[in-house]
Specification:
With about 400 residues, this protein is of the alpha/beta class. The protein has 14 helices and 13 strands. Helix 8 packs antiparallel against helix 10. The protein is globular and about 80 Å long. Bound molecules: zinc ion. The site of zinc ion has 6 residues, from loops.
Length: about 400
Amino acid sequence: MNQDYSTPAAVRAHNLSFTINLIRERGTITRAELNQITHLSTTTISALVNVLIASGFVTEAGIGVSSGGRRPVVLEFDYNARFTLGVDMGATHITVIIMKLNGQVIARKNRNVDVIHQPYLSLDSILEMITSILDECHLTYDNLLGIALTVPAPLIDELTGEFLTYYMPAWSGILPANYLRQTINLPIYVENDANSASLAEKYWGIGRGYDNLAYIKLGTGVGAGLIINNEIYRGVNGNAGEIGHTTIEASGRLCRCGNHGCIESYVGIPGLLRDVREGLRNDPAWQNILESMKIDQIIDAANKGNEVCIQVITKAGKYMGIGIANLVNLFNPGLVVIGGELTAAGDLFLNSVLSSIRERSIPFGIHREKLVLGELGSDAVAIGAATLVMLNAFNEINLYQTLRKK
Ligand SMILES: [Zn+2]
């Protein structure tokens, strides 16, 4: 985004945004510290702080430690001044959370919905869940800075929420953000699920302090969220991070994208289920559950020593490791975070990923890269969405609207 600092109003918006984000990140600060960090004049800081106090986001909270002379008043960020709401719309579930401005989740709702085939049922479920979670928390729309929704596909248009419907044809022509705007008069943002999870781990999870990281989401699909220089990297039309559709076997099995031998066709849950079915089809103990089994049953069986399930998970780890090694060699992120349902397989999967990475990453890449499990678990996607609302509300473009509305 190009910023225009040619007018006093633009400079002021920039300074105000910098200041409120600084206080939000630190929790408390004095005017003298603001002065030291921003190099703005005492008069300017005083004026900015007055605006923030009037908005209710910042309060004067008692007396700080003196460095000689009059003891300074401490400015404190009020993390309850407003809340953000994040919606994780997956392929088969919807999760809604309400978050405080310090990243703490205060309420959470989850519902199984056939999102892939039922677009309007899904969107109406989201509206119902939002109403009910607000009631539960004794909040109204006025208490929210906005709402963000994630989609389980590459995002084409951030404003309308149009996404790539190749895998979800029932959604063709549906603009989720516009639909929600018919009912909700708040800023509404949309993001891809893996990108959103990467944001959550960067701000509140294991990725804190990293300017560059990759988040690998392992579920029905296999996707990656890339954060490069503190920004989500989307590519030209939202397709960046589609690691699941990079080729691992030149003449491999047919993938749902139409190509052959994609990582996702082996590491995605449908691919794993297929391998287990093939491996156990002659085992009488499994006959009755082969068609209906879920990934956690496979993980459970592997943990109890079932050789077929162990092999399937190990092979998935090996293939994913090759994909991650390629990504590491291309992007050199400081951290690779793994999240999603398959991470429940724990060390069995992770050790296989790690040894595969070690075999393939170029030598000078190995020591710098770290492979870790996400800290936020299955809430990461919804938390990332709620975080996106916060970041947008306090940026210099939207800040005045954010401060005015109370
Ligand atoms: Zn594919």
